[in-house]
Amino acid sequence: MNRSYTGANLPTLRSHNAALVLDLLRTAGEAGISRLELAEGTGLTPQAVSKITARLRAEGLAAEAGRRPSTGGKPRTVLRLVPDAGYAVGLHLDRDELTGVLVDLAGTTVAVRRAPLDLGADAEVVLEAATRAVAALVLPPPGPDGPTTPGPERGLTLLGVGVAAPGPLDHGRGVLHRVTGFPQWDGFALRDVLSERLGLPVVVDKDTNAAALGLALRARPGGGSFAYLHLGTGLGSGLVLGGALYRGARTGAGEFGHQTLQLDGPPCSCGGRGCVEALCLAAVAGGDLAEAARVLGTGAANLVGLLDIDRVLLGGRVVAADEEVFVRGVEAVLADRARREGSGPAVPVAAVAGDGRAVADGAAQLVLAPVFGHADIAFPGAASGAGAAEGASGADGAAGGSGGPLGGFPAVI
Amino acid sequence: MNRSYTGANLPTLRSHNAALVLDLLRTAGEAGISRLELAEGTGLTPQAVSKITARLRAEGLAAEAGRRPSTGGKPRTVLRLVPDAGYAVGLHLDRDELTGVLVDLAGTTVAVRRAPLDLGADAEVVLEAATRAVAALVLPPPGPDGPTTPGPERGLTLLGVGVAAPGPLDHGRGVLHRVTGFPQWDGFALRDVLSERLGLPVVVDKDTNAAALGLALRARPGGGSFAYLHLGTGLGSGLVLGGALYRGARTGAGEFGHQTLQLDGPPCSCGGRGCVEALCLAAVAGGDLAEAARVLGTGAANLVGLLDIDRVLLGGRVVAADEEVFVRGVEAVLADRARREGSGPAVPVAAVAGDGRAVADGAAQLVLAPVFGHADIAFPGAASGAGAAEGASGADGAAGGSGGPLGGFPAVI
DNA sequence: CCACTTAAACAACGCTGTTGCCAAAGTGCA
DNA sequence: TGCACTTTGGCAACAGCGTTGTTTAAGTGG
């Protein structure tokens, strides 16, 4: 299984370009984009774009939507992504809560469902809760946000289910490891078991990775790198480098919490000393949020320096409770660093809005991202993507086939 | 200039596969590799490999070299890379020394040249020294390592010159920034100036990046991620993630030395406090190498945890002077960390051999790597690759055209 | 000596994006 | 009102890619 397989043939080429066009359609959103702009954006000839968009329209993934004002000649025809050509479910299995979302191809969350969850309970109980959540999200009429949205009717095309859980885990194989506090999950093949049960492709990833992926897809297209720092019961991070999610070979990347920030500092629950998490949580517990922000900022500054990233995003319950303090505190440390180096403006810091859903939304993007060619940074050694259960409700396989882009194929989704 | 241009057409496809095959030929080395093994390794059909290798042979990049023993049928024909089909010069502009190497397509260093250099001198002086080094490496008979090596005869195909210099600098544009201690270089367009002067493509990168790239190409093919930590007059690093060099958007990645390792610790020359570099160099100055290694190891552990890398490589003059102490010291810290986490064996640590040439060798690989499809992790925003001076001695452009792989095109090299 | 196996080239093919050409659909001036 | 002009985008022919089917080459083993 340790093969590279990066050779590319014509179907690969076709998928790559189709995914590229789909991604531009996606980022254009409601406004749409013309064929010539697609050609400009991809570097393909207008004629190639015409052919590709014709295929996409035939498959129901794209549609014409009005015209631009003329600039002296025939006006450009605007194309748009058809949002309900495909849906994905995102599940966030948190320690005490399950959040599920239904997201359409355009990235719009069309339904949300929350339920209490005990991640420490028996596997069967958790799986049953997940199954119920998926069923509830898919089956019923429109959803909580009313009939204004063109609610998915029965028989919608469900591309798969993305599951975000606390780490550590193996994204490639979809197996959980010893989730902190819940050792009974160690070695549980969540992806395969859930996929079998649902009859749908399932992708599993760390909660922080899912959140980062979701944020990456909402950010400006192409390039851009950022760190998502999540401060809740623990401190974790998700890394997006050059526009792609970086998981590392064993899905272990982003273990931000146990970075040593104070040599021989106070002991941490991990057994180490002076970890950011320990320092930060201690400050929070002591009520000194400014100090917590300073510690977090120092860790963030290390990240910014090491990875040369473009921005820092903050999230998690603790941050959400006092956004301003944390954003300003981290900003201050980064500004100080930028001043010392004199290398341009400081890296911007922002809090993630609507945090309660960020992880679940991102989990859905685990399924949707490959359709748009958003692969992770390739690790040929590790298996990647959703292995099990093809089809089931995959319709005519329109979007299913146009999965991986060239270079670093994820396994079929 | 901020375009993506990741659309792929047939020539792109061809280049990608050709580069892939070339890379397998390169890693096979003297032993060579058969067509069927190439097919196995690329995922292409044997017939496609036959066509591609036929082209490569026609271009003089590959040649048949013997046969394998038969396994009951026609024996496999072994193919090998033709090493002298192309050469690259690598220059390491260090603060007090210039090291130049001539490297062939197979990655063998066929000539070395060292000369004292004052990087603080006038630009003209430094450029003249660089020009002389290139001329000396290319013109004379075989070189210092005697007539055993099939020395490049006059008229060799020189693909370009890679230059490694202390950072910070902009790899994409080939412009130096304020090199620590030598502010006069700030804004100097080294790539374009040198390219104009030599009539050759030139690529500029940080010394640590070049070293890491060189090491990456020598490592096991595909995948694999590691950090190269360089402890000399300062402390820097080069990151290879998923087999590809990671520079960040502004070539700033790898600023390892000024990671805060001790909150509110002793002041550092950078203006910050508790930086790894300050702590490490202080320990070295105090003669406590074990402590220096422990500090370095703690910083390395942060890297390993954050990026989930596979191994740590150490280099630089200070390390070279006491390899054992540093390797063991860093190993100890990483082993301790692995034991706490219980997640498999500790990450291996090793010192880089022949350190005096590691950077220069890597600089040459800045030119050679794209031929084999080794692109960096893409940052569509930043211009990349060697822009200037095409041709000159580019021969029939055989290798020149087969530059970028699919996905994240570097500008033509 | 011949049957069998394996490797690799030859030939025909389907499909890709590209090029050349032309119809469609506007604007703007006479 | 009409005609020239501009711009968009489809149609058709094409070159080039990897693939498939077949044949030839070059060995082993009974």
UniProtKB/TrEMBL annotation, chains A, B:
It holds the Pfam family ROK. InterPro entries: ATPase_NBD, ROK, ROK_cs, WH-like_DNA-bd_sf, WH_DNA-bd_sf. The lineage of its organism: Bacteria, Bacillati, Actinomycetota, Actinomycetes, Kitasatosporales. This is Transcriptional regulator. Belongs to the ROK (NagC/XylR) family. It comes from Streptomyces chryseus.
